[in-house]
Amino acid sequence: MTDVAGPAPVVVDRPERSRFEVLVGDEVAGRAFYTLDDGLIVFTHTEVDDRFGGRGLGGVLARGALDAARARGLRVRPDCPFIRSWIEKHPEYSP
Fold first, then answer.
1. Which of 2, 13, 19, 66 has a 20 to 30 A CA-CA distance from 26?
2. For residue 28, what are the domain limits?
3. 84: in domain
4. pLDDT tens-digit readout, 12-50
């Protein structure tokens, strides 16, 4: 669950770093790393910093990254166990 008292989290793509970031205010709270090749985005690793744990930011990050991939018409391969598990719980995001 996100912290309702703080700023709303925002997911941004950082293609120069091959990752999506979830920002809380001006702080990077988590990252979803990926590779991109010929219309396929492969999510390889996702992490949320310990001090931001327990706020549901991993889910916010997964949803934002997958929404961005879908909006660009990319095929998705969830090699990252967290992203794969999140998709299983949200079948509307199944590749």
1. 66
2. 10-93
3. yes
4. 999 999 999 999 999 999 999 999 999 999 999 999 999
